[in-house]
Amino acid sequence: MSTYRLNHLLAPRSVALVGASARPVSVGRAVLENIHKAGFKGQFGLVNPRHAEISGIAAVKSLDGLDFVPELVVITAPAHEIPDIIDRAGRRGSAGALIVSAGLGHGPGSLHEAAIAAACKYGMRLIGPNCLGIMMPGVNLNASFAAHMPEAGSLALISQSGAIAAGMVDWAAQRGVGFSGIVSIGDQIDVDIADLLDYFAMDHKTRAILLYVESIKDARKFMSAARAAARVKPVVVVKSGRMAQGAKAAATHTGALAGADAVYDAAFRRAGVLRVSDLRELFDCAETLGRVESPTGKRLAILTNGGGIGVLAVDRLVELGGIPAPLSAEVRKTLDAVLPPTWSGANPVDIVGDADASRYAAALEVLLADRDNDAVLVLNVQTAIASAAEIASTVTELVAKYRQQHRRWAKPVLAAWVGADQNIIQTLSGAGMPNYPTEDDAVRGFMHLVRHREVVEELSQVPPAMPDTFVPDARGARQIVTAAIADGREWLEPVEIKNLLEAYDIAMVPTYAATDVEQAVGYASEIFAQGGTVVLKIMSRDITHKSDVGGVVLNLTTPEAVRGAAANILARAKKLRPEARIGGVIVQAMVVKAKARELILGLADDPTFGTVVVFGRGGTAVEIINDKALALPPLDLQLARDLIDRTRVSRLLKAYRDVPAVKQDAVAMVLVKLAQMAADIPEIREFDINPLLADETGATAVDARVAVGPPQRKFVGSGPANFAVRAYPSQWERRIKLKDDWRIFVRPMRPEDEPTIHGFLHHVTPHDLRLRFFAPMKEFTHEFIARLTQLDYARAMAFIAFDEATGEMIGVVRLHSDSIYESGEYAILLRSDLKGRGLGWALMQLIINYAKSEGLKIISGDVLKENTVMLEMCRHLGFEVKPDPAEPDICDVKLKL
After folding, report:
1. pLDDT score, position 282
2. Less packed terminus of the chain by CB within 10 Å, N or C?
């Protein structure tokens, strides 16, 4: 996720426009006039070979004619001229170009390729082509053909649609909402959504980021950037194409359930991005997030002069998962003293239709002081008795006073004036109060705030440790799959599937493959001898769903019954599907569990996000019931639990009436194991366990299908190429022997290491902490440590070292690469009482080797000059050590790999 040179494009000190037209109705003319009207403060030049001036602005014939070097070149020229313009700009030293023009085409030999090649020669960044442009109010730059320039504010908008960006500007102009930046990215020839997420996540002027997405080009890059951004500020997305079908027909139930939009939904959830369904909801999000901070909880107090609208607000609040704030006896008594006897006496606080400004103020003061609510929603239905405008004015004055008195801890106050005129809207907006046309919109706005707080908490959760007893036979499992592929097969045989599941400690009913009737009788007799009953299923690589041809017979209890059923199954399959290859029948022990739940679990392949884990209610009507949830692997137990909880069938996993609860985490562990299997064996294309029977004793697979094929590499970089989110890199676990036969174990950091790190820090002196963090560190909060431990293993890596004898943590080394994987910045911290024993040297060598494996070219770091031990070690490792020109107390260290 590269922010390389983006500051020069989005906050340039100089701009040149190439291609402005003298024609009144043209894109070039509109862009020129917008730049001029916005009052850009930096140097500006106009380039046009045919006109000496346009709209009173002097023009030069080429970029070479400018008396300055433009940081940003805005291009509205015809497509065939663009590669040459970029080349000229690069030669002059421009940092990048905004290509508003369309028509560059795609593929080898296209203008698209020529433009990229020209930019790469000079390290230029490109925004566009085929876009509306950019609007950066903070630097008075409107390099777009939008109708309006937005006000300065704290929202950033990244849009794949120019029309959506223009619509947001128009809406914001009416609501008084400002933007830190609006970027229309068009065809994303270079700068993409992920790059801009990185940029605005680090921009101190941006409070929240809004996205309009049509498709994601690089899923792993997007996931890493979105997750990093969502940790520090709200990221809200609206995606078009919600009803679009998957890219290919699915051969399994899990494949059919994993529709394209459902996968996007799972990806947004995993990244911590708030998804909204349409532009109206996006506007509401912008209204809310642009004005107030998230509340500490989800208890909402509602103040209204209309009982009906208050009840509607409560209904919507409860439906969306919020909580109507309770009113304590003390608060009710206080409200009784300032309100007429006819007030509602509960939440919503209905102060009756004749309520005037003073009554609103009296009630609002009580609710603002009440610690049993987390936010207040003020509703007003206009009447002929009291002035709605006067009430709005009084409420905003009171809220402003409240915020002034409680700057740090002020709770959000939202408003909905039904049927309000523009003056009232301006009063509320001018006071920084989120306001909405209806109570429904207001409640949704509040719940967006709540959801953002929950997302931040989820991203900082410490998942439970995996059981040490789970050690899969990945090698054996891989041999099963590779042998099938070598045999030219696309599907595993039933016995192969059973062996595959056993390799990952997933229970499956006894399963045998019989090529003829008599072999089926023989296998069935073995099951009968153990007191079991038998089920027969047709065995065919061409019949996806066995029940479609009557290929399943249950409850067989004698060899004679098996003989007759097997003959009938084979005959029926040959008659109904004469073209199908029929290999015989599957003989299985029949599991009769009256109180077991039928579930479906599996893996599907998505063309954008790679492997997806699917969970839901199983059985033959699985697609009709459509009770499912999706997640991107890898999974830990907590993520697996969350996946299960997002389905309706999750309620049936709990105890009810005489049905015991399903064994704790039995199903979650199967999901985790499946995700690990997908990481170990990318040749698995689809995996379908249906049904998985779950009860108080555990979980057992009854039937499964596995599609295999040569791995289709999707994502660059290390880790499973089929995962949009990198898996835990177990291949980097090391046992190292240091001097004096000191043996240590080093592995990549995991989220559950947070308590370990807290304990480790007690063994680091304040002096060593200051050398590491460049400032005194009095305490380390949960949020701070959680952010250190929650790695995506894409841009950030950390190795944690343990003393093998004691099991105690003794050191940690980190590396954070830039988004184009050119260079990485390191940091290291050791237990203060164990320094000087070779631990630091070993960890530095490990992180250097890791950087080389990732293809990084440079490792760098900042070291305090007083940290002479670290500087000396860097020199011995080959780092170049130089004083920082801007910080006299710091040395820059750099190692070329």
Report:
1. 85
2. C
